[in-house]
Amino acid sequence: MNDIIIKSKEIKLDQFLKWANIVMSGGEAKSLIQAGKVKVNGEIEYRRSHKIKTDDIVEIEGFREKYRVIKN
């Protein structure tokens, strides 16, 4: 599991994917999310603006790693 440190209380899902270097652009994040390839805490999430908070787990279809959000 990869721990990703965020500086704020929460972060939008699409911004998190860029912050964690999972995707290179907002367009790539949007495509992954809208295609149903992103899970937050085990549930598929289709909203780019979904708020990710401390201890949330993000999974990407096709990636072996899981990403846990931790607060700095």
Automatic annotation (TrEMBL):
The alphabetical list of record keywords is: RNA-binding
Checking InterPro entries in the record gives: S4_RNA-bd, S4_RNA-bd_sf
CDD domains associated with the record:
S4 (cd00165)
Q: Which PROSITE patterns match?
A: S4
Q: Per its UniProt record, what Pfam families does this chain match?
A: S4_2 (PF13275)
Signal sequence region: none
User: In what residue span(s) does the RNA-binding S4 domain sit?
Assistant: 11-70
Q: Does the keyword Amino-acid biosynthesis apply?
A: no
Spans traversing the lipid bilayer: none
Q: Does the keyword GTP-binding apply?
A: no
One Gene Ontology molecular-function label = RNA binding
Q: Which Gene3D superfamilies match?
A: RNA-binding S4 domain
Record-given protein name: RNA-binding protein
| Source organism of the structure | Iocasia fonsfrigidae
